[in-house]
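If your schedule permits, I should be very grateful for your opinion on a structural question. Please examine both parts with care and let me know of anything in them that strikes you as inconsistent. The record follows directly beneath this note:
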Amino acid sequence: MLNQLFVAGTTAILAVSSLLNAACAQEVEAKSYPVLSGVGIALMAEEGQLFVGKIIAKSSAEESGLIKEGSRLVAVEADGESVSLDGKSVGDAASLIRGPVGTKVILTLMPPNDDKAIKVTVERKALEITGAFEATYKAFIGKPIPDLPLSLLDGSAKKRPADYRGKVIVLDFWASWCPTCYAPVTKLQKISADHPQWAGKVELITVTVDSELSKAADVVKQQKWHRTENLAVDVDELKAIGVTVVPVIIIVAPDGTIATMAGAHALDVEKEVAELLAK
């Protein structure tokens, strides 16, 4: 049912029925809510090193004219911090490269047949991927969140978004087999720690799409994701809420309407939540 695509990381494409309907033609608002953001390189691992396997057409990587297929990716600098990619996985690197649209990242590369490293600054942009459309997300903005059945990771108690009415809800959809899903969930832990004043006003919830909940529970334990409420959803239910890829985040306003929906790496959760709390 599920397959994966590597575009500067892993984006999981969920094979569900068509989500587009008449609502998709409506312009909800001008703000962009991309399904996926990045610089437009597909990565591959070989003998413990990472390489540029493919450059996506019309992406920042192609526009730079400096990034070549076959280049070895040495380091990534983002948010003022440079991280060596020695020993890192494709998922690790992708999570560093991806981020909010309009922000920049510096890639250190070794071009093919060249022993001199170069640094290339590229801007993160919305990327188009087959089977996932920004219009799908826009169709849900401003609409009441569907009555999505959720459960605890042990499969016991059932919950629904309506249970949190009156609060801002952040729903982060992820999967244990999606390596680039981990970074956004980890970031939610930090956001929770940094904003104790949100207690009682904001619910940070992770929602796994795993069919084997024990695997998701193991990841939660290993990653120490204890500052979020960690729930699960049956993948067949996702067609009601417009989720066709993971990771994706949906932010729900206190009145139960969807305020924001975007690829998890493309979204500034703190900013979006703060704006809702200020209203």
